[in-house]
Amino acid sequence: MSRRCQISRRTFLKGVGASLALPYLEIMAGSAKSSALAKPPTRLACIFQPNGVFPKAWDVAGSGKGFELSPILQPLKGLKEQLIILSNLDNVGKGHVQMTGAFLTGNKIGQGKNAISLDQRVAQAIGQETLFPSIVLGTEPPRQGAAGRDPISFANTVSWSSDTTRISPEINPRVAFDRMFRNQSGPEALEEASRRKSVVDLVLEDAKRLQRKASSHDKNKIGEYLDSVRSVEVRIDNTLNPPERSWTPPTRPELLRPEAGIPQDRSAHLKMMMDLLVLSFWTDTTRVGTLMTAHGFSRQNFAFLDGVTSDHHGMSHHKNQEQAVAEYTKVSNWYIEQLAYMLERMDSIDEGNGSLLDNSTVLYGSSMKDGNGHVKDNLPIILAGGGGGALKPGRHIVCDEHTPLANLHLTLLQNYGVEADHFNHASTGTIPQLG
């Protein structure tokens, strides 16, 4: 190839007030570093939807490649060949709080303890090269109170870094953007990181000293606090000493900072958080991302949808009444529309070796099948993307009845190179059909 024909992988198409990154082109190869030509990493996105679905509107007909999308899943018809629908996966626990907590852990919350979640296990395995081992995003503020014996706050998230440590989702788009993309390099950023490191060192030293004198209950609380501080410490270290990368994105998007505040429009807010998740993968800021589309006990109002009058939690207890079922299904369909938006964005990003979606595994689902009775069997679960070659999408996989959800966790964990024969002692094996 003639050198005068080579163009930079940072080339942008520019217009009035906007710029758009070019897709990967062969002409860019001569100017790209060898790391940019390596196989792209495989990312993991975990997307949680609250309150279940109406089963008859979710369940697909047919199995293998000969399946038909159900009414709720119709927004995904253009992406059918990128999907794996999974049936007969069961959750554990009772009620919204316990079942939300088990979505990525497979574990029943007891005595205030859970287990490490799938996203965080994978982040431990593949997060060393990126600024953030993982990110956790959401759209709904944390809630307090109790649901039976369980604190509702346990349903604020599906991400647990240990059996006692929850990771709170960031719901403010600008705050999430600034953490990921602003002031991550340059003299001012390095100076700020050095200052913060000295403060963190002092906090860790004092907290450890206090922990040695504390009661068992307080030791757990301090341990949870220390885990949170350590996550800050990792980000600081990655700023001061950027990790060596085996791969560099061949293209880079223009990063437009969101406006201040939290959007009042539900669709706009969720799409914005999905955009941030996609950007974090595209720029290799992280390779593991989790998104709470809403709180696990969500009572969000969907009156902006035609014909919907009640809140999501209320309509999920539909008692098979026609109006409630219609509203419940319409909200589920709306969530799938948002998922389709995100998957289409990922599929449009060319990484030179497949699209971003080809190089990702997207786990989407709810922690209960039907909110009416908190049904925990045969969960609504979707996998999207090619998993970097590990998945063969375009299928409906019907697992054996009462297969633990943790079997899916273990299978995905192994796909990311983790040698494990169980997942939180909740699995009974893997899902061989996914291989």
The general outline is globular
Name of the CATH superfamily: Alkaline Phosphatase, subunit A
Number of strands: 11
DSSP helix fraction: 25-40%
What's the arrangement of strands in the largest beta sheet?
A: 5-8-3-9-10-4-11
Largest sheet: 7 strands, mixed
Quaternary structure annotation: single chain
CATH topology: Alkaline Phosphatase, subunit A
Radius of gyration: 22 Å
Low-confidence stretches are: 1-36
Question: Number of helical runs?
Answer: 10
Q: What is the residue-averaged pLDDT?
A: 87
Domains counted in the coordinates: how many?
1
The CATH architecture assignment turns out to be 3-Layer(aba) Sandwich
Beta-strand portion reads 5-15%
The CATH class assignment is Alpha Beta
Write the element-wise H/E pattern from the N-terminal end onward: EEEHEHHEEEHHHHEHHEEEH
Structural commentary:
With 435 residues, the chain is an alpha/beta fold. It has a single domain, classed as Alkaline Phosphatase, subunit A (3-Layer(aba) Sandwich), CATH 3.40.720. The protein contains 10 helices and 11 strands. Helix 4 packs parallel to helix 7. The longest helix has 27 residues. The two termini are 39 Å apart. The N terminus is likely disordered.
How are the elements arranged and paired?
Elements: E1 12-15, E2 18-21, E3 43-48, H1 55-58, E4 83-90, H2 95-101, H3 118-126, E5 135-138, E6 146-147, E7 150-151, H4 173-181, H5 187-213, H6 216-240, H7 266-282, E8 288-292, H8 312-316, H9 322-347, E9 360-365, E10 381-384, E11 395-404, H10 405-415
Parallel strand pairs: 3-8, 3-9, 4-11, 5-8
Antiparallel strand pairs: 1-2, 4-10, 6-7, 9-10
Helix pairs in contact: 4-7, 5-6, 7-9
